[in-house]
Amino acid sequence: MKELKDVIIQEGLPINKDVLVADSFLNHEVDAWLMKNIGQEFYSRFRKEPITKIVTLESSGIAPALMCALYFNVPVVFAKEEPHAISSDYYKETVYSFTQEELVDIIICINRLEKSDYVLIIDDFLANGDAALGLVNLIKQAGATIAGLGIVIEKSFQSGREKLLAEGIRLESLARIASMKQGKVEFIEEKLVR
Amino acid sequence: MKELKDVIIQEGLPINKDVLVADSFLNHEVDAWLMKNIGQEFYSRFRKEPITKIVTLESSGIAPALMCALYFNVPVVFAKEEPHAISSDYYKETVYSFTQEELVDIIICINRLEKSDYVLIIDDFLANGDAALGLVNLIKQAGATIAGLGIVIEKSFQSGREKLLAEGIRLESLARIASMKQGKVEFIEEKLVR
Predict the structure, then answer these.
(1) What is the DSSP letter of B172?
(2) Which ranges of chain A would DSSP assign to H, the alpha helix?
(3) Which residues of B touch A23 (CB under 8 A)?
(4) Which residues of A touch B59 (CB under 8 A)?
(5) Contact (CB<8Å) A101/B85
(6) Nearest residue of A to residue B58, measured between CA atoms
(7) Which end of chain B offers a freer environment for a tag, N or C, measured as fewer CB atoms within 10 Å?
(8) What is the value of pTM for the model shown?
(9) What is the pLDDT of residues B6-55, one digit of tens each?
């Protein structure tokens, strides 16, 4: 997605070879119109699927997921870190949080997903795939069907893509970063087949 | 806002006289089109102000704030709980988290707000006003101007409104709950002057 790659080049901060700070458009300050266009792009890639729900992880997945939900006209469910007060029973997975540098429990309440749901997962970053696989497993616990995973920025030099494809998950990433050596972001160029 | 009040009546769960669970449309599962209409309603109430930025608090403020940002065509900044890795200096306030039942530090990085910014604050709930006042103080630290505060659901029987008005903040709440006794939500009816 050219608009997104241009923003990454202009505003993304590769602070080392592994970490891209996207605080000016995605993870702290959010460009609402860019998110709308990202939502539309995910829609165009998955529009043939009978999606009934978008699932994401708080907090940075919410913006692209919500915009995508507008196009599909379905609700978003955001998985939460296990809070102190929960209103119902829930599905739980333990994932390693890249930001918090520790294991965290993520949950989805059981009444938010049904077996008949056809779910598109949306998240902001794909790195080692821990968060995405946690979401996959929450949805599997509910017995719902997974249509695929839409990722805003994939760090293709980490192992997430490989792990998700091994699980049979369809993966669509809008920007795939090949490397961030010497502070320079290089993308994997792809021909998009629709 | 009638559409919102109807949803609160139909789907909100007053689990006691103080707590309304809004997990099916706002705090866990999110109704994207309701959020869009909420964003438009905030826009209509604040459209005469020269807003340059929307500020909210992760996670449940993001959806209404993002939709409102689309109408104003400005970015959203979401204040974050203090993470382990931060990319820059930041403003910090300590607030009591109703959900986590403990004090938490919330931050906004200094390069996300400028003195020239004219900020609309958006949040999902107003109860005792702690989170909202934390956001007010973060913005004041940055020296930016506060146009007002837009709240999706105000629990008017708690002290938040009073505290914010005492600070001179313009407050617009789309649904004001007078009481939730015996599991029944009663609203404060208001004539909206535009």
Answers:
(1) E
(2) 2-11, 32-46, 62-72, 130-141, 160-166
(3) 87-88, 109, 112
(4) 58-59, 62, 78, 80
(5) yes
(6) A59
(7) C
(8) 0.96
(9) 999 999 999 999 999 999 999 999 999 999 999 999 999 999 999 999 99
Residue of B nearest to A67 (CA): B32
Length of chain B: 194
Per-residue pLDDT of chain A (194 residues; tens, 9 = 90+): 999 999 999 999 999 999 999 999 999 999 999 999 999 999 999 999 999 999 999 999 999 999 999 999 999 999 998 766 666 899 999 999 877 788 999 999 999 999 999 999 999 999 999 999 999 999 999 999 999 999 999 999 999 999 999 999 999 999 999 999 999 999 998 766 55
Do the Cβ atoms of A99 and B87 come within 8 Å?
Answer: no
Collect all residues from B whose CB is shorter than 8 A from any CB in A.
Answer: 13, 15, 19, 21, 23-25, 28-33, 35-36, 58-59, 62-63, 66-67, 69-70, 73-78, 80, 83-85, 87-88, 99-101, 108-109, 111-112
Cβ distance of B29 and A59 shorter than 8 Å:
no
Q: B119-134: string of b/e by CB count within 10 Å (b at 16+)?
A: bbbbbbbbbbbbbbbb
